[in-house]
Structures are given as structure tokens and as C-alpha cells.
Amino acid sequence: MVSQKRNLMVMKKHLILLILLVWVWVMPKAVKANATLEKGKPGVQSIQADTIYKKGTWSVGLETANNSSFYGRYTLTKYPYVAGTLTYVHQSGLWASATSYQLFNTDKAIDETDLSLGYTFKMGKRANGNLSYSRFIFSKNNPLIKSVVANIATANATLDWNILFTSLTTSYIFGGTHDVFVVLDNSRYLGLNKLWGGKTPIGIDPKISIISGTQRFSETYTTTVVEERKNQGNGNGNNNNNNPIGGVLDPLLPGNGNGNNGNNNGNNGTTTTTTTTTTTTTQSKFNLLNYDLKLPVVITLGSFEIEPAYRYLIPVNKLSGDESRAQSFYQLNLTYSF
Prior knowledge:
Blueprint (H helix, E strand, L loop, with lengths): L1 H34 L21 E9 L15 E9 L4 E10 L8 E11 L4 E12 L12 E10 L4 E10 L4 E9 L2 E2 L10 E3 L2 E25 L37 E33 L2 E12 L11 E11 L1
Antiparallel strand pairs: 1-2, 1-14, 2-3, 3-4, 4-5, 5-6, 6-7, 7-8, 8-11, 9-10, 10-12, 11-12, 12-13, 13-14
């Protein structure tokens, strides 16, 4: 068993090295393609949901980060990862993508695979829309928070109003759990190459996001009922009259009859019964979850794009047991489009 885990870790390292070698081979081609571009004219950008293409476009991406998160939430244990993505966008706006993740500190070859289908469309001169569905497949005993999610349906709208680029995304999670998330993004790309007259398009794309969503929590309450019941006395009455004939012939004489004029002996008391009932219910409420600050640097080399980024997440309105806290993330995205 130990030998098998060791072999899987070695396979992971070899796969990551192979991916890096592929990018080293692609980089010179991208630089050469970039040299043919007009001064200041950017190359083909990475495929994004807010872009409408005149022809079909393929994109191959590689992403790595020092920790994993899901809508701003993450575990106390860090799970750095590397992910590869293949995306195709048809000229009609239909698109499909597949992404596979490897966590550095697990013994699985593939920890997660995401399959997505979507449709991008124009809503105006500066506005676009996107509808998509994603299916998530996880390895057994996956440690990520996201592993309880099976499906997500997403609707997105973007608006470029010069000052800012605004994006509003609503996601519905179903299958295993049912939740709704709403993400509001505001960003603006700022080109920097003009500052030094460089030919290679370089810029920053700072973004501020507000993440809201449903939270599920349990409420437990206890009900105690105390019931008191009086016991009834039990005894036998004895008739003490001296009538030699008995009371049958003269029922009107005092002392005749059974049980009323004798001595009644019995036990009187109170019995107390206590019943305790504990009830647990699951509640759901929509609340602000996170503030997300991101500062990526975008470097375009022809059809090749490099994007190192710093990200700072601030969780709010945490439930009991939530280990998330304000934390820094470091990411690197490499994309080649053709």
C-alpha cells in the first residue's frame, strides 16, 4: 500500500514536469508570433465567457495555486493544486470545457474533474450574457469543501461601462445539496506597456468581488413536560353493627350495609412523570459570505498569455465550525489559444 502511494506521488511529479516542458516548448513559438503583431496591438486573449468569437477557438490552460477554495470558503488544511483545462468556443457562442485537478498532498492521480457546457450571447453593444451547466466528479474521500457539490447551473451577465467592467453571476447548486450563490465582480484592465513603449502587451486587471449565498445550519431545542398524577386510596370497609339478624330484614337501621361505616385503610400519594424531547431542525438563510480582492498581472505573447495573481479572501458571517479566515492566495495561469 505504501509502495502504491509512493508510485502515485512519483507519477504526479512526472506529470507536472511534463506539463512544464510542454509550456517551455510553446513559449518560443508564442514569442515569435508576438513579434509579428503591430505595436501595442494585443494578441488573442484567453477564452472568457464575455467574448463573442467570429470563428471557433480552442484554448489550453494550466493553473496552479497555493490553496483551494470554493466561493471563498476553504479548509484549515491547505490543498495546493495544479489543473489543466481544454476549452472550445464555437462561433455560434456555444462552448464546452473540461478541467482536471491534482492536489499536491493526496495520493490520487486525479482528484477532481469538471465538465462544462455553455452558451455566450450578446445583450447589447457593451453587454454580454452566458448560461452554463457544470458537472463535478471527485475522487473517493476527497478532502475539499467543494466535494459535496454535484451540479451547478449558472447565469452570468457582464457590462463594460468604461469606468469598470461589471459582472453579475448567479449559480444554483443541486444534487446532494441545494444552494444559491451570487457573485458581483468589478474590474478594469489597465495597460502598462505604454509607460515604457514596450511592444509586449502587459497590464494589470484588479478585481473586487462580493460573494453572497445560502448558509445551512442546525438548530436544536429541548422541550420538557412534567406531569403529576394523584394516586387513589384502596381499602376494605368493615360493618360493626350488632344486629343478630343482620341487615337483610331491616335495611333502614343504622350500620346496615357494606363498606360505608367501617374502617377504610388505603394509600394516598402523587406520581410525577417527566418527558424530555430534543428536536433538531436544519435552517437556511441567504447571507454575505466573502470579500475577494484579486490583483493579476496579464502578459500577452501572441496566442500565449501568462497571468500571475495575488488574491486575498475575507470571509464574513461564518457559521459554527467554519475554519475559514482571512488568507492570501498565490495563483499562476498559463493559456494558449489557437
